[in-house]
Amino acid sequence: MNAPVTSGTLQRFRNIRRQTATLCQPLQTEDFVVQPIVDVSPPKWHLGHTTWFFENFILAKYSPGYQPFNTGYNYFFNSYYESQGPRVLRSNRGNMTRPSAADIFSYRQHVDEHLGALLENNDPLFENEDFALTLEVGLQHEQQHQELLVTDLKYILGNNPLFPVYQENAAPVTSQSRPADWPRAAELQFGGLQPESRPAGWLEFENGLYEIGHRGNDFCWDNELSAHPVYLGDFAVQDRLVTNGEYLGFMLDGGYKRFEYWLSEGWEWAKQLEEQAPLYWYHHDGEWWNYTLHGFEKVNPDLPVTHLSYFEADAFANWKGLRLPTEFEWEIACKLTHSQIPAEANFLENGHFHPQAAQNTQFFGDVWEWTSSAYLPYPHYPRFKGALGEYNGKFMINQMVLRGGSVATPRSHIRATYRNFFHTDKRWQFTGIRLAKSL
Fold first, then answer.
1. Parallel/antiparallel/unpaired status of strands 281-284 and 287-292
2. In this model, does residue 76 exceed pLDDT 90?
3. 3 state DSSP class of 107
4. What are phi and psi of 230, to 5 degrees?
């Protein structure tokens, strides 16, 4: 959890802040305000909230004589920090036409200039551990909001009847091989034979005691600590993600109509779906299409299926006679398979904004992988001190853990021990499936 300030910190701060602004370049003014559901925040709120974090937790405390850009912004851009006072209800973030997007960019520039001046040639401050940790949390926090910005934008544009294109698809979508058990009905549904996708294999692991959690001096979130032993029985996980074609087989076999595959709560949820398919899938003229940030595309059977809830992931695994991995199995499989993040892993910086066909085991990037583990604290969980203690710990109830990152995750933000978490019905993030089994 250490986070030393180095000579490269100022440049890293500027690069991360610039990346957030770059993600907004394709937007029109009206796009900055919309909030179609409570889970989605308007883009201008993300821009302001990440800026407020630096202003409120760093400049106000460590920059002598600093004057806030606008004292009213604390109420508008505080997210869930009870210790920082009252705030706009999350569901009301899209109701505010002011401050304007232009005002928010001025706010960002103001804070960037002051924080840049604070970071430049301030060696005594760099030795302050609380300052160093808060600054690092601010940088990591902004990277989290870069991912949220991408997924929220997709929901905003994907629920616009005109289905606007966020970015033209400059990166080719690759495909490899079709599974041996590819259903004939799926071929007809897709309108003919498709390129073959690599058949899924199995990575097998022996029973034993394994260490779970983060160890080392580099930064991690408090929920990744403390490192502790866990006993695992013999298990195996598939060596790639579940594909659209495989998931279509579940759909064509009546997966959404067969209660025996679903958790009771999931079955009630599934019956209410307008389209019993992954989010952003639409059936038109006998074919399945999906909305991507590049616009509408025919569903490619070879790409990883994404935008699934935990309910759907669990039901699919039951249909296959398999299961989802526990978060501990996932972490050990990832660590023993990769000593570092593969260069070809598909992250935010790749600019695809959509999962790609398997070029490796896909443990990193493409989609966040649902696990069967509830989001709970590790033994001897060391919650951050002060206001930062509200960051993770108070959300450790009624949510499931996801691992691995997605197409919207910055590469430098992810690691094998990273624990994401969502409620079981959420699917606006890039979420998908890896199957597991006991041996």
1. antiparallel
2. no
3. helix
4. -135, 135
- Nearest Cα to 327, choosing from 224, 416, 401, 418? 401
**Using only C-alpha atoms, what is the Rg of the chain?**
22
Q: How many CB atoms within 10 Å of residue 316?
A: 24
Tens of pLDDT, residue by residue over 88-145, are 888 889 998 999 999 999 999 999 999 999 998 777 787 888 999 999 999 999 999 9
Domain boundaries, the chain: 9-158, 184-438
The dihedral sign for the CA sequence 75, 81, 83, 88? positive
Q: Is 420 exposed, middle or buried (0-12, 13-18, 19+ CB in 10 A)?
A: buried
**Closest alpha carbon to 190 in 273, 247, 258:** 247
pLDDT in tens, 179-191: 344 343 444 344 4
Which of 15, 278, 38, 310 has the alpha carbon at shortest distance from 146? 15
What is the structure's pLDDT at 19? 97
Residue 383's pLDDT is what? 76
Residue 382: pLDDT over 70: yes
In CATH terms, the superfamily for domain 184-438 is paralog of FGE (formylglycine-generating enzyme) (3.90.1580.10)
Helix (H, G, I), strand (E, B) or coil at 209: strand
Provide the CA 101 distance to its chain's centre, in angstroms: 25
The 3-state DSSP class for residue 381 equals: coil
Rounded Cα distance between 349 and 361, Å, is 19
Which CB contacts under 8 angstroms, 24+ apart, belong to 82-88? 82/390, 83/386, 83/387, 83/390, 84/56, 84/387
Across 61-70, 79-88, 175-184, which has the greatest mean pLDDT?
61-70
The beta strands (E) that lie in 151-207 are given as 202-205
Amino acid, res. 246: E
Q: By the 8 A CB rule, do 152 and 41 touch?
A: yes
**Contact call for residues 266 and 316 (beta carbons, < 8 A):** no
Q: What is the spatial distance between Cα 228 and Cα 231, in angstroms, rounded to a whole number?
A: 10
Give the C-alpha separation, 46 to 77, whole Å: 8
